[in-house]
UniProtKB/TrEMBL annotation:
It holds the Pfam family ADH_N. This is Enoyl reductase (ER) domain-containing protein. The lineage of its organism: Eukaryota, Viridiplantae, Streptophyta, Embryophyta, Tracheophyta. The keyword Metal-binding applies. One of its GO terms (biological process) is lignin biosynthetic process.
Length: 361
């Protein structure tokens, strides 16, 4: 059984939490642990709203515990460091993404892939080492082991940089790992939401040709003129899809809901790779014959390691990659969630925590 948060933790904290599967968020007093020897405590300034926050707030993956404070695109300024902390000092700009712990003794951890540790501890909604439940960044302060804290370079804006901590790393990691980062390659990005729009930016910065694949033509102009995509396919337009058969080296699929994979597999060249990063609540149907004919591969990818996350943030700062954001006050968060369901956001909501989260709200 999880221990009581109040008994365990001396630091008062305040955030907005979902209390049940309605996912409705409301003010919530809780507490965080004292700054341990290897911990960094920071004041949260901004937190992005990932679609995973919505899946979790509504228990769409069947693993949520309540009350649940979502948020894993967290940035802020360090207020306190433990005696053994080496990388950070008070005043540093830092971020925390999707995980805050791992076993550090398994093969994945030995390979510096904490994100694939079977005991990886998510930033919110799971049991921490001390038996208490982790809580995320829709809150005023954060305490995390320095290993899970990322340095934010000075030239990276904190508000539009926040979404990189989940959306950014989730698309950067598979582009690198699956070798879809070679200049001249042609990569498709399916779903132009929070993850998808930064996938376009990272792939372009790597020198890759990018085709956006979307259900509607609405975002075409913006994708081409603003995000820098090279071409745009409307997945419901059979003629367009037919004409593009066999043209892509790889696809990053960021779609959050059920959708057919066959049309996407058809777009791949032989040996092409379809990489799933979106996490729909139900299994998708996998047509096997189109995979055999062309030795195509379907893979997955889950966020990225801490080493890779720092590398991604530094790459973003170097190439001026940030998310396109709509900054919102905390009391807009439930409306933002409703809009996220309808894909009505260009392209990431970011909560202005420092200026709008007040314990009297
Ligand atoms: N693998 C990981 O490590 C990881 C990390 C973060 C998020 N995710 C998951 O990735 C998914 C996307 O997250 P996001 O924050 O970018 O969400 P988002 O809502 O911003 O974007 C999702 C996109 O999918 C599109 N879409 C929705 N339903 C569709 C359908 N039926 N057919 C085609 N397109 C459809 C939407 O128009 C939108 O553009 C979510 O499921 C999220 O949980 C996975
Ligand atoms: Zn996320």
């Amino acid at each position: 059984m999880a221990k009581s948060l109040e008994v365990e933790h001396p630091k008062k904290a305040f955030g907005w939490a979902a209390k049940d599967t309605s996912g409705h968020l409301s003010p919530f007093q809780f507490s965080r642990r004292a700054t341990g020897k290897k911990d960094v405590t920071f004041k949260i300034l901004y937190c992005g709203i990932c679609h995973s926050d919505l899946h979790m707030a509504r228990n769409e993956w069947g693993m949520s515990t309540y009350p649940l404070v979502p948020g894993h695109e967290i940035v802020g300024v360090v207020t306190e460091v433990g005696s053994k902390v080496q990388k950070f000092k008070v005043g540093d700009k830092v971020g925390v993404g999707c995980m805050v712990g791992a076993c550090h003794s398994c093969d994945s951890c030995a390979d510096e892939l904490e994100n694939y540790c079977p005991d990886m501890i998510l930033t919110y909604g799971v049991k921490y080492f001390d038996g208490t439940i982790t809580q995320g960044g829709y809150s005023d302060i954060m305490v995390a082991d320095e290993h899970y804290v990322v340095r934010i370079p000075d030239n990276l804006p904190l508000d539009s940089g926040a979404p990189l901590l989940c959306a950014g790393i989730t698309v950067y990691s598979p582009l690198r790992y699956y070798g879809l980062d070679k200049p001249g390659m042609h990569v498709g990005v399916v779903g132009l939401g929070g993850l998808g729009h930064v996938a376009v930016k990272f792939a372009k910065a790597m020198g890759v040709k990018v085709t956006v694949i979307s259900t509607s033509v609405n975002k075409k102009k913006e994708a081409l003129e603003h995000l820098g995509a090279d071409s745009f396919l409307v997945s419901k337009d059979q003629d367009e899809m037919q004409a593009a058969q066999g043209t892509l080296d790889g696809i990053i699929d960021t779609v959050s809901a059920m959708h057919p994979l066959q049309p996407l597999i058809g777009l791949l060249k032989s040996q092409g790779k379809l990489v799933m990063v979106g996490a729909p609540e139900k299994p998708l149907e996998l047509p096997v014959f189109p995979l055999l004919m062309g030795r195509k591969l379907v893979g997955g990818s889950c966020i990225g390691s801490m080493k890779e996350t720092q590398e991604m943030i530094d790459f973003a700062a170097k190439h001026n990659i940030t998310a396109d954001i709509e900054v919102i006050p905390i009391d807009y968060v439930n409306t933002a969630m409703e809009r996220l369901v309808k894909a009505d956001v260009r392209y990431r909501f970011v909560i202005d925590i420092a200026n709008t989260l007040k314990s009297s709200s």
